[in-house]
Amino acid sequence: MRVEIARSPEEIGISPFEWERLLTESETDTVFQTRDWILAWWEVFGTGCEMLFIKAFEGEELLGFAPMMLCPDGLGGQRIRFIGDSHADYQDFVAGRRKREVVPRLLEELLQLQTPWVQIALSNVPAQSSTIELLRYTCECLDHPVLIAKHTACATRLIEGREQEARQLVGKYSLRRPLNYFRRHGTLEVRNLTEVQEARRYLAPFFEQHISRWHDTSSPSLFLNRSNQIFYDRLLQRMLPTGRLLFSVAELEGHPISFHYGFDYSGSVLWYKPSYDKGLAKRSPGLVMIKHLLDYCLEHQRTELDFTVGDEDFKYRYTNVQRENLDLRVYRLYRDYALALAYRRTRRLAKKAAHGARQIQTRLSEKP
């Protein structure tokens, strides 16, 4: 098996057809492994990182690839990550039907790079992916320690085979109530934007609404960063014509009261970036969008509405399955692995101590 590394987009040399074929055969096949996503992300955020796009061949046949990059870790070292990291909700190797042969070979190439990397950080790998088993085995053989750094909940509403449950959910008063309220107060239109020029005109009000929604909170809007606005625009131009980007708006008398910027890919609708008019928060304009997406899934026979990463409370009211992502860390040196373990133990003890202090304070405050 031959391995090559592309260090620029021009060197990748994989046709759209080849990329698509291999991805559809892969265990993890999500919008975040598509050619459009990877290249759009690199165009906007790749500055300061070195591309390490690793490909495996048998003869001239492409068997798999890993869209990786080498980036500063902020501590004076360098870290190998997936291209798209920090924005992608699911990440994995694209390895088709021969994954058990291909992934160890790609990992070997990464582990043996002469570049002075400190850590390989693989974030948001689906817990059910065989990549985790293959990574552990390969790293054990080559004497590199592996740490599972984080577990992340990924809630979803399975619809295929459970259509009646989904229809009952859509019919619940909690989802009909906001819709009825807005209809009593004007003309309400909820639709998917399908034309690129029109959709781009809605990006600015979407960004503004999201910034306003998260203003004065502990999590300011990502759209305060101009690069994120450019990335979303770039994705829209690439993916809306393919039908894979699903940009939806709910308007009351022509005024946007909620948005959802997400994806319709491989039979699943992915919840990605929602927003709503915070001045109408008490009337739940965000629920208008959830109902719209559930209706869309039923009408178009989608298998699920995937709410992806995050354990926000509202998700559990509208989902019926919880999956999990893992963050995996591979260390070049056992010294760094030991430091990471020590840091984790210190944090765990600090959280335990803080929790204990809060309990004591609560008991003291309850005494007469």
Question: Can you characterise this structure?
Answer:
- The chain has two domains: 2-153 and 324-332, Gcn5-related N-acetyltransferase (GNAT) (Aminopeptidase, 3-Layer(aba) Sandwich); 160-302, 3-Layer(aba) Sandwich (Aminopeptidase).
- By secondary structure, it is α+β, with helices and mostly antiparallel strands.
- It is built from eleven helices and twelve strands.
- Helices cover 40% and strands 28% of the residues.
- The mean pLDDT is 94.
What order do the helices and strands come in, and which of them pair?
Blueprint lengths: L1 E5 L2 H4 L3 H9 L10 H11 L4 E9 L2 E12 L5 E5 L16 H13 L7 E8 L4 H11 L4 E13 L4 H8 L2 H12 L3 E6 L2 H18 L12 H14 L5 E8 L2 E11 L2 E9 L8 H15 L4 E6 L11 E11 L2 H33 L2
Parallel strand pairs: 4-5, 10-11
Antiparallel strand pairs: 1-2, 2-3, 3-4, 5-12, 6-11, 6-12, 7-8, 8-9, 9-10
Shape: globular
Low-pLDDT ranges: none
- State the strand order across the main sheet: 1-2-3-4-5-12-6-11-10-9-8-7
The CATH architecture category of the largest domain equals 3-Layer(aba) Sandwich
CATH fold descriptor of the largest domain: Aminopeptidase
CATH homologous superfamily classification of the largest domain: Gcn5-related N-acetyltransferase (GNAT)
Query: How large, in whole angstroms, is the Cα Rg?
Result: 23 Å
Q: What would a concise description of this structure say?
A:
The chain is 40% helix and 28% strand.
